[in-house]
């Protein structure tokens, strides 16, 4: 016919190297170092959030069936807050810090001057594809770096939106978005970066670290874990279970790194915890939660199969005391409670990252601390109690990325 189909450009190591060369030229020019450039980019992210709010909500709905209210609060509002804090603090962050000198160098003076690292790579996650993509970008821009963002291919609508709109709002000579999957990520990791920021699981985290080690590149790994919630007796149980529920099913239907992975409570108190959860779940999500518009779906078929495997494990299949309903076609699993799950079961040896909530029982609540510390350090650990001594023991004994007493997940809103 004589017509030629234009081949889609492949992003390989050569393309990555070419992009890096241009970014290094941009960074070397000094454009990203100025206060004015940093402020302009941060303000443009805020403008992006305001002007494209509905586009962001729609993309999150396509990727995860994420409820609009949850998208606005946990993705857009939190990002805007990060931008506002950066704008408020930026001048202070950029000021040199005076350092003490000794008598041997008198009458000298000294100061610590913060400087940008250079060109940095941000590899984002799929569960909060907007916030976890742009929140690290806010930090990188505030520090005066050039940035490459690699959104997750598992949330394609959000990835596509970021690739389309970021060049419209941010300086495309210094801030790039690269879409793709394993080949594109591999091509990026072959380059020499001044820093790599990765959000995701430990398996890929090891790959990122191994690639970074070849160039002695510093790495920030934001990984998940099995975050426990210890529930003591003598508390307002309705308030406690509601707060657990918000941090579990209200956070992307359990697909959040700091959402409660499992509950630990005493054998005597466990039935009351189960009854309270059942009662409040029906209030929150109705008699048929699979039809609720307030619950996100499982992100894809692979993760649906992974969660189904947990439920079908012989060691736990008979432990379901509430929920367990599945809709494979719509990738939905109802909020599910499992009681007295064996510690050697599959569900207790992998991060759940979904709407399943096992309950482990102990003879006395203090025994839960030994259980937590015997496993991999959790990203967050929660305790519900009115016992002052138990609170002190929890803080002194349990090691985790963050500790919260009488609530869950709220610590991510505390800006240090």
TrEMBL record:
One cellular-component annotation, GO: cytoplasm
Recorded GO MF terms: aldehyde dehydrogenase (NAD+) activity
Record-annotated Aldehyde dehydrogenase domain positions: 11-411
InterPro entries, per database record: Ald_DH/histidinol_DH (IPR016161), Ald_DH_C (IPR016163), Ald_DH_N (IPR016162), Aldehyde_DH_dom (IPR015590), Aldehyde_DH_NAD(P) (IPR012394)
This protein's record includes keyword Protease: no
GO biological process, one term: aldehyde metabolic process
Family as reported in the entry's similarity comment: Belongs to the aldehyde dehydrogenase family.
Protein name: Aldehyde dehydrogenase
Biological classification of the source: Eukaryota, Viridiplantae, Streptophyta, Embryophyta, Tracheophyta
């Amino acid at each position: 016919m004589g017509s030629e189909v234009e081949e889609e450009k492949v992003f390989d190591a050569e393309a990555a190297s070419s992009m890096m060369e241009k970014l290094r030229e941009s960074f070397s020019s000094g454009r990203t170092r100025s206060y004015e450039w940093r402020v302009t980019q941060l303000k443009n992210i805020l403008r992006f959030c305001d002007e494209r709010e509905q586009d962001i909500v729609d993309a999150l709905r396509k990727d995860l069936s994420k409820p609009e209210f949850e998208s606005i609060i946990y993705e857009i509002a939190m990002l805007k807050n990060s931008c506002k804090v950066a704008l408020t603090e930026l001048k202070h962050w950029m000021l040199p810090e005076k350092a003490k000198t000794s008598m041997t160098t008198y009458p000298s003076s000294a100061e610590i001057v913060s400087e940008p690292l250079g060109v940095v790579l941000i590899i984002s996650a799929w569960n909060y594809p907007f916030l976890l993509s742009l929140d690290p970008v806010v930090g990188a821009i505030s520090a005066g770096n050039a940035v490459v963002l690699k959104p997750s291919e598992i949330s394609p609508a959000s990835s596509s939106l970021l690739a389309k709109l970021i060049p419209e709002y941010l300086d495309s000579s210094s801030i790039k978005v690269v879409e793709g999957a394993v080949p594109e990520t591999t091509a990026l990791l072959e380059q020499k970066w001044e820093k790599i920021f990765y959000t995701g699981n430990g398996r890929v985290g090891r790959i990122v670290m191994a690639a970074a080690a070849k160039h002695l590149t510093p790495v920030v790994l934001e990984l998940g874990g099995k975050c426990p919630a210890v529930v003591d007796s003598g508390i307002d149980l309705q308030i406690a279970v509601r707060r657990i529920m918000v941090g579990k099913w209200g956070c992307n239907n359990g697909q959040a790194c700091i959402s409660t992975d499992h509950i630990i409570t005493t054998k005597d108190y466990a039935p009351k915890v189960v009854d309270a959860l059942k009662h409040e779940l029906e209030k929150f999500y109705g008699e048929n939660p699979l039809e609720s518009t307030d619950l996100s779906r499982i992100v894809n078929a692979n993760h649906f199969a992974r969660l189904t495997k947990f439920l079908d494990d012989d060691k736990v299949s008979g432990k379901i005391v509430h929920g367990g309903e599945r809709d494979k076609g719509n990738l939905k699993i109802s909020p599910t409670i499992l009681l007295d799950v064996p510690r050697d079961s599959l569900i207790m040896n992998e991060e759940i990252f979904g709407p399943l909530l096992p309950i482990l029982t102990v003879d006395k609540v203090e025994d839960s601390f030994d259980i937590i510390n015997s496993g991999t350090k959790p990203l967050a650990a929660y305790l519900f109690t009115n016992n002052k001594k138990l609170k002190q023991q929890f803080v002194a004994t349990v090691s985790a990325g963050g500790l919260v007493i009488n609530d869950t997940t709220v610590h991510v809103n505390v800006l240090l």
